[in-house]
Structures are given as structure tokens and as C-alpha cells.
Amino acid sequence: MLGVPFVRQAGFTLVEILVAVALIGILAGIAIISFTKQARKTKGAEANAMFAALRISQEQYHLENGTYLSSGTGEANIHPATPGRLAQTILPLPTTWTSLKVKLPQENVYCGYVTVAGRANDATNLGVKAAKFGLTVAPSTDWYYLLAHCDLNGDAARDSYYFSWSGDTVIQKQNEGY
Fold first, then answer.
1. Contact criterion met (CB below 8 Å) for 173 and 161
2. Are 101 and 61 within 8 A, CB to CB?
3. How many helices (H) and strands (E) does the chain have?
4. What is the Cα–Cα distance from 94 to 97, expressed in whole angstroms?
5. I need a labelling partner for 149 at 20 to 30 A (CA). Which of 23, 60, 81, 172 fits?
6. Which tens digits make up the pLDDT trace of 11-35?
7. How far apart are CA 107 and CA 111, in angstroms?
8. Closest by alpha carbon to 90, among 148, 3, 6?
9. Cβ neighbours of residue 154 under 8 Å, at least 6 residues apart?
10. Distance of CA 53 to the CA centre of its chain
């Protein structure tokens, strides 16, 4: 055996392959979780377009009628009534929405929407969610606020809320992506 050189075979051991597969699996899991959360946030971003349409409609209604209009009898009167992680049609619109002459940016939505309005210094219509977003006292001018209720992950235990009002057009978010 003196004339035969020792030849080492090139390749990976089973342990090295298992470690590589485990690392790829962990990285893929992290990527999927991040992608899913980002996709839910993107669905929630529809609130920006809907709020813009509702703001324009409220201001036009106020110019024509001297007051803002509530789209229902309070925060619980959202449309569509059951927001979910699957897109649903927002048509037909409630009568109050047609009175506002809302021009929808899209027909299918992931969130339910409501607009609540009130007169200057009248806190009668201020709801619980408005208070959670910091609107606890009625403004000294006529006012309205917009609320979006979204269940973007199908888990009704924790939902997303988006909020904006006539005195501050910045959209505030609570539990974004849920």
C-alpha cells in the first residue's frame, strides 16, 4: 500500500448539511413573519385614502349646510359592519354617506369606517375610542372625527384602529397591523 496516495473525498458531512438547513429554515421563518406583518400594515394603509375622501366630503357638506354630518349614531355604527382580513365591498353606502357625497377611492375595503360629528363645545357625540386617541373635550368649533376599525389578522381579540379629526388631520394608529 505504499504506492497508493491517501485521497480525501471533498464534500459536506451530514451535520454540516443539517446546520445549513436549520439556518435557512430560521431565516425563512423570520422573513415570512416580517412579510405577513408588513402586508397587514399595507392593508391598513387604505385608511389614508378613505380618510382623505371622507375629509373632503365633510368639508364640502359643512360649506353647503353649515354643519358636519355623522355617518351613524356613534362609533359602533361602522360601515361595513364586520371588518376583516379579507377585502369586502363597501357598497351600497349608508344613506348618510350618500348625503355626504362620498367619492370612494376603492370599492373593496379591509376596514369599517364611521364619521362622528358634533357642534362647538358639545361633547355629546364623543365616543370611547375618540377619548383613547386624546379627543376628550369638544372643540370650540364644529367638529368631526373619522374612525377606522380593522381586523387585519382575523383575530378579533386585538384589532387595529385609525383615527383623525377635523382639528388634526394626522392619522393616529392603535395596534397597527392587527
1. yes
2. yes
3. 4, 6
4. 5
5. 60
6. 788 888 888 898 888 888 887 777 7
7. 12
8. 148
9. 84, 85
10. 16
